[in-house]
Design a protein that fits this description.
Jann2411-like fold; two-stranded parallel ribbon; two-stranded antiparallel ribbon; alpha+beta
Length: 214
């Protein structure tokens, strides 16, 4: 597995925060587990190579402000071992979420270990959640603590739980693009969207079909 560091152009085509986080790899190669299920969990290129990448994705996804991102990076510099552990944890969470949602799309029984990963992270996140009154009622925000290096993970796991409990869970799809396997929320009226992004995987597939016809 190769890695890609600073400068990786994160794309937000998943339609949900948790799906966009799952897509922080350049694609996945087909691979089957011991039960013969095609999770396609061999990662082509890792985009969360370090803590700075995790924070930068959080900025791109709108989960942390520039000031929050800068504070997190400063805190990580003073605690590099802790930051490395958060990155490893973030990748583990991402892969557990990936397997959970793939299981959903194939109607497989999810692995208990993956459910436990999400439950454990939810418990951590909920201790940081705060109610906030606003002009149109109450909303939720997150505790501001630059020493909490896992800050970016909190909205990710909340998004995953909300989607898993949603009556629109069946709209989660896996891209048909060769070696892609990104996940996305299908908002098409016919619910038959096949690609994570028509401008990317969709066009590649069209070009391949054209070459085959020729």
């Amino acid at each position: 597995m190769a890695t890609a560091g600073a400068g990786t152009p994160f794309k937000l085509v998943g339609g949900r925060v948790c799906l966009d986080f799952i897509n922080t790899v350049s694609g996945r190669l087909p691979n089957r587990d011991a039960a013969g299920r095609n999770y396609a969990d061999v990662i082509r290129n890792e985009w969360v190579a370090g803590f700075g990448d995790l924070v930068r994705w959080g900025r791109v996804a709108g989960l942390v402000s520039p000031a929050e991102a800068a504070a997190l990076v400063r805190s990580a510099r003073g605690a590099p071992a802790k930051a490395a552990r958060v990155v490893a944890r973030a990748r583990a969470v991402r892969e557990a979420l990936y397997r959970l949602f793939v299981a959903v799309t194939h109607r497989w029984r999810p692995e208990a270990a993956d459910v436990e990963v999400l439950n454990r992270e939810l418990s951590r996140a909920r201790t940081r959640e705060r109610l906030r009154p606003g002009a149109r009622g109450f909303g939720c925000t997150w505790e501001a603590d630059p020493a909490a290096l896992d800050r970016v993970l909190w909205p990710v796991v909340r998004s995953a739980a909300e989607l898993l409990l949603s009556d629109e869970l069946a709209r989660v799809r896996r891209c048909d693009g060769a070696d892609c396997r990104w996940l996305y929320f299908d908002t098409s009226r016919s619910r038959n969207r096949r690609w994570c992004d028509m401008a990317d995987c969709g066009n590649v597939a069209k070009a391949r079909r054209y070459r085959l016809r020729q």
